[in-house]
């Protein structure tokens, strides 16, 4: 008798492949980007985890928590936009504010 999937099965981490071809379990905290296409390409969905990238940016730029949150959002948005580009193309996201942060710029390929 074949075992039927349960709701708990849906909650278990799944294995994904990162951009460098290495497997990264979703539960292990590794960064990932997942793309899904349905409806003969008419429906596209993207999801990503960028915790590691944001932490590295925080460490390199020595940012405060609020600045890290803003930087993380820009980095994540840039990653999602760049994932839809054709080879050789790039995208630059620039957020300019009037507060103490000034501008945040991120480029993705």
Give the key terms:
Hsp33 domain, 109 residues, globular, alpha+beta, two-stranded antiparallel ribbon
What would you call the structural class?
alpha+beta
**Separation of the first and last Cα atoms:** 49 Å
Query: Oligomer, anyone?
Result: single chain
- Residue runs with pLDDT of under 50 for 5 or more positions: 9-19, 21-25
Q: Estimate the helix proportion, in percent.
A: 25-40%
Strand content: 25-35%
Second CATH tier, the architecture: 3-Layer(bab) Sandwich
What's the helix count? 3
Specify the biggest β-sheet: 2 strands, antiparallel
Which strand order does the major sheet show? 1-2
Estimate nothing, just give the exact number of structural domains. Answer: 1
CATH homologous superfamily identity: Hsp33 domain
- Based on DSSP secondary structure assignment, what is the total number of beta strands? 6
**pLDDT averaged residue by residue:** 82
Please tell me how large the radius of gyration is: 17 Å
Shape: globular
């Amino acid at each position: 008798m074949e075992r039927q999937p349960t709701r708990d099965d849906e909650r278990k981490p799944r294995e994904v492949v990162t951009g460098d071809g290495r497997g990264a379990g979703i539960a292990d905290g590794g960064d990932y980007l997942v793309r899904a296409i349905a409806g003969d390409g008419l429906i596209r969905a993207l999801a990503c985890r960028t915790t590691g990238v944001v932490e590295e940016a925080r460490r390199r730029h020595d940012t405060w928590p609020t600045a890290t949150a803003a930087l993380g959002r820009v980095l994540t948005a840039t990653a999602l936009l760049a994932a839809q580009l054709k080879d050789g193309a790039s995208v630059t996201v620039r957020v300019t504010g009037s507060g103490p942060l000034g501008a945040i710029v991120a480029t993705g390929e």
